[in-house]
Amino acid sequence: METITNTPIETFIKAIGNFGFPLVLAVYLLLRFEKKIESLTEAINQLQQVIKK
Fold it and tell me: Whole-model pTM?
């Protein structure tokens, strides 16, 4: 029995074929924005601490 390993690109292409481009794009953008929002939240919290001093 042969083991099949998928690279991230192969997995991404299969997801596009299975679910459609709009859905895959929406999920990708949501994940990217979530990381940026977390970073911005951390920066705002740091600024609040500096302002309180």
Answer: 0.49
